[in-house]
Specification:
Layout (H helix, E strand, L loop, with lengths): L15 H8 L4 E2 L9 E7 L2 E6 L8 E6 L5 E10 L7 E7 L14 E7 L14 E17 L10 E2 L5 E4 L21 E15 L6 E7 L6 E4 L2 H6 L10 E14 L4 H9 L1
Length: about 270
C-alpha cells in the first residue's frame, strides 16, 4: 500500500526502495510487533510516522503510514479477525462510543466501526463480545468521493448521525445491525465509508520531502477522528482540499493501537493462576 504514503507527504514518484534503505538508519523498533529489526518506525514529527515491516529477513519492506492520535475512542467489540499474512495485526469490528448500559445498536450516539489494530500482541487470546477497549485511530484515504459544502441529496451508505452525517464499515452491515459476514465479502478489512463534517485542519510538513501534509479532523460522537488524504490524488480527481465546515466523504483505512481497556499483566496472572 505504498500509495497510502501519499497521505503523509511522499509523492507518487518517490523512490520507495531508496526510502526504505535510507529510513533504516533513522528508524526505531516498534513495540508489540515481531522480531527486532523486522518492524521499524521512523518518526516524522507531530505524531506522524513511517512504518516499515518485513518478514524473516525478506528482501523487500512494506511501508505504510501511521499517526498517533491524542484522542481515545471507546469501542465495544463485536469481532476480532486475524490477518493471515500479518500476524501482529488484527481487524477490530465493534460499536464506537457505546453507552455505559444497554445495546449500542440502539444508542443514537453509537456507530459501527472497523479498524486495523497494529499491536495485536497486547490482546489476550479471548475477549468477550461487548468488551470495551480504548483505541487511538486515524484514517488514510483509499478513495475520496466528495469534498465540499454539505449536499443533502447525496445518499447515505452507513449509520446515520446528526446533520446528515454517516459512517459504516466498508461492505455494510447485516440485518439486525451486526456486521456483514467477513466484513463485506471481498472488501478490504479495517476500512470504513464515511461522510462527516470537517471541524479542524492542521498544516504539517513531511521532513523528508518537505511536502505539506493536511491533518483533517472530522466530527463524530464521543471523539473526533483524524483523517489524511493524498493531495496529488485530490488534484487528479478534481477535488478541493477539505475545509472547516465542509463535508468529507470517501473510503478510509483506519489504523491504530490499543490505549486502554485491558487488565494489567499482574491482574492477568492472578486470573490465570488464582
Amino acid at each position: 500500500m505504498d500509495f497510502l504514503l501519499e497521505c503523509i507527504g511522499f509523492p507518487p514518484d518517490h523512490d520507495f526502495d531508496d526510502l526504505a534503505r535510507a529510513a533504516r538508519g533513522h528508524a526505531e523498533p516498534v513495540a508489540w510487533r515481531g522480531p527486532a529489526g523486522e518492524h521499524l518506525r521512523m518518526p516524522l514529527g507531530h505524531g506522524l510516522e513511517l512504518r516499515m515491516d518485513r518478514e524473516r529477513e525478506a528482501a523487500t519492506w512494506s511501508l505504510y503510514p501511521h499517526f498517533q492520535s491524542n484522542h481515545r475512542l471507546r469501542v465495544a467489540i463485536t469481532d476480532l479477525v486475524g490477518i493471515p499474512d500479518s500476524p501482529y495485526d488484527v481487524i477490530l469490528h465493534g460499536w464506537a462510543n457505546p453507552p455505559v448500559e444497554g445495546d449500542p445498536r440502539l444508542a443514537p450516539d453509537s456507530y459501527p466501526i472497523a479498524a486495523v489494530i497494529t499491536d495485536a500482541r497486547r490482546l489476550p487470546r479471548r475477549l468477550e463480545v461487548g468488551h470495551v477497549l480504548a483505541v487511538t485511530l486515524a484514517g488514510f484515504a483509499l478513495d475520496v468521493e466528495f469534498s465540499g459544502p454539505f449536499d443533502p441529496k447525496r445518499p447515505a451508505r452507513g449509520r446515520r448521525l446528526d446533520g446528515g452525517a454517516w459512517i459504516g464499515p466498508l461492505g455494510g452491515f447485516a440485518s439486525g445491525g451486526g456486521f456483514a459476514s467477513g466484513g463485506g465479502g471481498d472488501a478490504p478489512g479495517g476500512c470504513v465509508e464515511l461522510s462527516l463534517p470537517v471541524t479542524a485542519r492542521r498544516a504539517l510538513e513531511n521532513p523528508v520531502t518537505r511536502a505539506a501534509v493536511e491533518l483533517v479532523e472530522v466530527e463524530l460522537p464521543g471523539r473526533p477522528l483524524a483523517l489524511f488524504a493524498s493531495p496529488w490524488q485530490l488534484a487528479v480527481d478534481g477535488l478541493a482540499t477539505p475545509r472547516v465546515g465542509w463535508r468529507l466523504e470517501g473510503t478510509f483505512l483506519l489504523t491504530g493501537r490499543v490505549a486502554g481497556g485491558l487488565a494489567s499483566p499482574t491482574e492477568r496472572l492472578g486470573a490465570n493462576f488464582g
